[in-house]
């Protein structure tokens, strides 16, 4: 049995509605329903009668409610006892960031934030692996893609557009593809950290995934960029990775406005009703730095 599920049950019982409890706590209605079902399974009893019109407590639910309310109050007491500490920007934060954004702006932005606040230390891990924030002790992660874990809070920062590009020397040697379908006749270098298959490239036209092939793949974005710059093939990458190369003409956008892939970049942190001020302030600082470089994305 999880104490946060018991606290959630108290909120549902008090408000008489999954939806009202979900709105109050910033959760999806389906998440509230699943967590109450989990609590009932853990306790091996039914706590609520559910109808299309209302919720009502079972005998077991009535018996549990006083203890659940005590847990709500205890949770608030714990929060109140550390309010002063949580409002101060000091202490320690562990942050996981992806390598592309980390190299582009996050490492500098986070170091800048730490230097602005005496007594604050931030440990940054650059990795494309989706870390388990709770089990591995991270306070914050910057992720590109989709949020699946309902126990985490996601703050949208910006969207990252992908594109297809190659070096002029490759285009001179192999020709320029004039449509997504033409890519099947080219050497397409693979980035293995795509959320879809590494050889599955998404386009608006023909409106499906084009399956490409090539003789080189890597999980390192910097290595992929270098291979493209050297003229070894065509790459499918986030715009921010090759922004300067496109401006300088050392890489060419081959199919502008045709790539369908655009992924959200999010600040992810464990669910809590009262995130520390240092965490909220760091997220806002990171977001402002992303928005200041929105043209890269």
From TrEMBL:
One of its GO terms (molecular function) is DNA-binding transcription factor activity. InterPro entries: LysR-type_TF_proteobact-type, LysR_HTH_N, LysR_subst-bd, WH-like_DNA-bd_sf, WH_DNA-bd_sf. GO terms for biological process: DNA-templated transcription. The keyword Transcription regulation applies. It comes from the Bacteria. Keywords: DNA-binding, Transcription, Transcription regulation. Residues 1-58 form the HTH lysR-type domain. The keyword Metal-binding does not apply. Pfam families: HTH_1 (PF00126), LysR_substrate (PF03466). PANTHER family: HTH-TYPE TRANSCRIPTIONAL ACTIVATOR TTDR-RELATED (PTHR30537:SF5), HTH-TYPE TRANSCRIPTIONAL REGULATOR (PTHR30537). Belongs to the LysR transcriptional regulatory family. This is LysR family transcriptional regulator. It comes from Enterovibrio norvegicus FF-454.
């Amino acid at each position: 049995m999880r104490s946060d599920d018991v606290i959630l049950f108290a909120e549902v019982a008090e408000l008489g509605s999954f939806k009202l409890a979900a709105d109050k706590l910033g959760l999806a209605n389906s998440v509230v329903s699943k967590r109450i079902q989990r609590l009932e399974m853990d306790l091996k009893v039914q706590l609520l009668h559910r109808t299309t019109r209302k919720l009502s407590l079972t005998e077991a639910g009535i018996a549990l409610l006083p203890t659940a309310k005590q847990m709500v109050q205890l949770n608030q007491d714990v929060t109140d006892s550390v309010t002063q500490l949580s409002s101060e920007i000091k202490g320690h934060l562990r942050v996981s960031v992806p390598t592309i954004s980390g190299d582009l702006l996050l490492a500098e932005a986070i170091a800048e934030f730490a230097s602005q606040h005496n007594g604050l230390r931030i440990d940054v891990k650059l990795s494309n692996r989706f870390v388990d924030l709770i089990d591995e002790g991270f306070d914050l992660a910057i992720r590109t893609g989709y949020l699946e874990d309902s126990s985490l809070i996601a703050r949208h920062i910006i969207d990252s557009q992908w594109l297809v590009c190659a070096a002029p020397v490759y285009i001179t040697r192999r020709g320029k593809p004039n449509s997504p379908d033409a890519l099947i006749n080219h050497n397409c270098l693979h980035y293995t950290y795509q959320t879809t298959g590494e050889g599955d490239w998404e386009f608006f036209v023909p409106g499906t995934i084009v399956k490409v092939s090539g003789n080189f793949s890597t999980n390192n974005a910097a290595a992929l960029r270098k291979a493209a710059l050297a003229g070894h093939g065509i790459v499918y990458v986030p715009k921010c990775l090759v922004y300067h190369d496109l401006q300088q003409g050392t890489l060419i956008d081959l199919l502008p406005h045709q790539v369908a892939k655009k992924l959200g970049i999010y600040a992810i942190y464990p669910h809590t009703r009262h995130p520390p001020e240092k965490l909220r302030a760091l997220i806002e600082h990171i977001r402002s730095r992303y928005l200041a470089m929105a043209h890269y994305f």
